[in-house]
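Example S7 (structure tokens).
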């Protein structure tokens, strides 16, 4: 019997990889997913889905449970600026709930999720081999520290550095009723805290920082937040991720393509990671359906340009203390500009 040739093998069973697998399966392709981790996958994540991400999931037939998000609030000391989403509500969704909903839909479409760790790849004229499987195309969707990116020779020097800083993220959940339907972002000297409602009685607290340290230590930069959660029951363990900045020289090397964090990542500062992963996954599927993988790198750049520019600009400002102190005051003084920026992020 001839050895089976899949149309697509996806390495990585997170949201980006599952979105590609589901999109390909819905297009009639033979797909398999390699994911060495078993069960529902969790990850340090702000867990706020922008309205664009909610729409992208709906297009895939996925409606994960969560809490409505109607906008974003920036805080610094006594100052606060709020901007509502104009394009409909976003949603706060536990990462585990999102993964469970996406995996269920992938399995419903008959896509196997195999407990395989890919440690090598080899490209041939009309196929790629990886993890004992053979496919026309191999998709690296294996996260910030992508093995596939390295094996394909697509890792770019300077990974993890921007303006001389490294940044990390931490996240934990607490049994607290949300006090607002917005993502609350509090700015400190070298870090930001994100409070996201993810259910009627649960909030997620994520901290992004250029300082190393445990979750409790990082909370000291946010005394009001620390006081609010001090008596609440933690309902998850602390999850960490980083360094957040990861660079890829390209997104395509022959029959190997990268998506999600594996394709290159700037920072979680603007909260667009999941939305960008889903929209670029749709572009990748479109290129595979047309059998034009070389088009994907250009499509990725076009689709992610606005997000990358906004994130790079805000992160550049963040890295300069004299300017960073003025970010929240500027949003307070110019609410229409803040609203416009948030509207761009939410699309």
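Recovered sequence:
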């Amino acid at each position: 019997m001839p050895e089976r040739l899949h149309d697509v093998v996806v390495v990585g069973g997170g949201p980006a990889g599952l979105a590609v697998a589901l999109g390909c399966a819905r297009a009639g392709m033979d797909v398999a997913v390699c994911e060495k981790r078993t069960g529902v996958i969790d990850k340090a994540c702000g867990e706020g889905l922008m309205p664009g991400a909610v729409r992208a999931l709906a297009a895939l037939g996925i409606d994960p449970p969560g809490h409505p998000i109607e906008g974003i609030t920036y805080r610094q000391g006594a100052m606060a600026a709020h901007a509502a989403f104009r394009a409909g509500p976003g949603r706060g969704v536990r990462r585990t709930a999102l993964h469970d909903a996406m995996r269920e839909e992938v399995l419903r479409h008959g896509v196997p999720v195999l407990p395989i760790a890919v440690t090598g790849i080899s490209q041939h004229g009309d196929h790629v081999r990886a993890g004992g499987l053979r496919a026309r195309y191999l998709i690296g969707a294996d996260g910030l520290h992508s093995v596939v990116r390295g094996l394909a020779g697509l890792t770019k020097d300077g990974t993890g550095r921007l303006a001389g800083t490294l940044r990390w993220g931490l996240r934990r959940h607490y049994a607290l009723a949300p006090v607002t339907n917005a993502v609350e972002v509090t700015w400190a000297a070298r870090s930001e805290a994100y409070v996201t409602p993810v259910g009627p009685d649960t909030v997620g607290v994520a901290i992004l920082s250029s300082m190393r340290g445990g979750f409790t230590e990082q909370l000291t930069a946010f005394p009001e937040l620390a006081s609010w959660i001090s008596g609440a029951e933690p309902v998850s363990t602390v999850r960490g991720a980083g360094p957040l900045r990861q660079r890829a020289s390209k997104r395509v090397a022959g029959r190997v393509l990268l998506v999600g964090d594996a394709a290159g990542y700037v920072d979680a500062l603007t909260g667009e990671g999941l939305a960008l992963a889903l929209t670029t996954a749709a572009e990748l599927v479109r290129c595979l359906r047309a059998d034009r993988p070389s088009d994907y790198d250009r499509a990725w750049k076009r689709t992610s340009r606005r997000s990358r520019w906004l994130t790079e600009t805000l992160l550049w400002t963040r890295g300069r203390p004299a300017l960073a102190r003025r970010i929240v005051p500027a949003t307070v003084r110019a609410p229409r500009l803040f609203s416009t920026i948030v509207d761009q992020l939410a699309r």
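Notes on this example. The CA atoms of residues 122 and 129 lie 5 Å apart.
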